[in-house]
Design goal:
320 residues, 16 helices
Length: 320
């Protein structure tokens, strides 16, 4: 399945996409929040994707259940802490946990700085308790627009000593990279590394723009990179990684034929592609499940699996 002598790494893992039904149910009761269901098992049917969704935006709507119970900064702290616990239980040696302050704050209009502080402290406490060294990546939720992302960025940069990178996620088609050039210039000047969701719901030009306009060092998903050989060559030359998420790509419709997912092509081209979970809470998966798919469904060789693990280790972000 994977080589236990090599690090097990997850570089693309959303905190706000990993609030499992049990935790949602618990937080709802703690904060007297009414849910549209009467039991935890019924909630799971709404939260967990049973097969796939119609598109990326339908997939993202599933995340709303989790953030709907984040009534206080303390709830955000608990979610962050539990994300460390869950990653540790999966046997993950190193993870970069990403989160959108605006998305986590929106249900109860929480102060953005308080959300970031809570997530930072939750991960810090989790790391201390479980002897892990997981890192944080802040997300700008492009779907909320340019000004909302400026507010989100300000909150992230206020805690830049505890956050290693910046991401752009959400509606890739209607909120393209060129809208966020100023945001990412500020982030890079503050020493943050850059990864961008691109080539998931839009074509190769979206990836070019993420690299050339925003300074992306890694690309989240990037399935449409396979359509552009010049782009592949450019990413090879500049060692730009791809954070591949097999189950998520199937569930969002980004790539419906999972057996022929381009991760194999990327490996054959020599691209530094890693394997990740994306939103394990709503996909109902763990990192080992993704390696099982890679091995059994895509028929990747042990050598290719090892290369994926090495890529994940080599593509880690470090504070500059």
């Amino acid at each position: 399945m994977y080589d236990k002598n090599l690090p097990l790494v997850d570089l693309h893992r959303h905190v706000d996409g990993n609030i499992p039904p049990k935790l949602i149910w618990q937080l709802a009761h703690e904060h007297s929040i009414e849910l549209p269901v009467t039991s935890e098992s019924e909630l799971a049917k709404h939260v967990v994707i049973q097969d796939k969704t119609s598109d990326l935006l339908s997939f993202l709507q599933k995340l709303d259940y989790g953030v709907s119970v984040l009534a206080t900064p303390e709830a955000c702290y608990k979610v962050a802490y539990e994300n460390v616990v869950m990653a540790k239980m999966e046997g993950i040696d190193y993870a970069e946990l990403r989160f959108s302050p605006f998305f986590m704050a929106k249900a109860f209009n929480l102060p953005l700085h308080a959300v970031v502080d809570a997530v930072v402290e939750g991960v810090k406490a989790g790391n201390a308790a479980h002897k892990t060294q997981y890192q944080l990546i802040g997300i700008l939720s492009r779907t909320f627009g340019i000004e909302a992302c400026h507010l989100e960025l300000a909150a992230i940069l206020a805690y830049s000593d505890h956050i290693i990178g910046l991401d752009l996620a959400g509606d890739e088609v209607n909120f393209p990279a060129n809208m966020f050039v100023d945001h990412f210039k500020l982030a890079r000047n503050a020493g943050l590394q850059v990864t961008v969701h691109a080539g998931e719901a839009a074509g190769p030009q979206s990836v070019w723009d993420a690299i050339n306009l925003l300074g992306a060092q890694r690309i989240g998903h990037g399935v449409t990179v396979a359509q552009d050989r010049k782009l592949i060559d450019f990413m090879l030359k500049h060692d730009i990684g791809i954070e591949s998420c097999l189950t998520s790509n199937y569930q969002t419709g980004a790539w419906v034929d999972i057996k022929n997912h381009p991760i194999k092509y990327f490996l054959e081209c020599g691209l530094s592609v890693s394997l990740n979970t994306d939103d394990p809470g709503i996909s109902d998966i763990d990192i080992k499940h993704e390696y099982c798919i890679a091995s059994n469904t895509l028929s990747l060789t042990l050598k290719q699996i090892k290369q994926i693990q090495l890529n994940g280790h080599n593509q880690q972000f470090f504070k500059v």
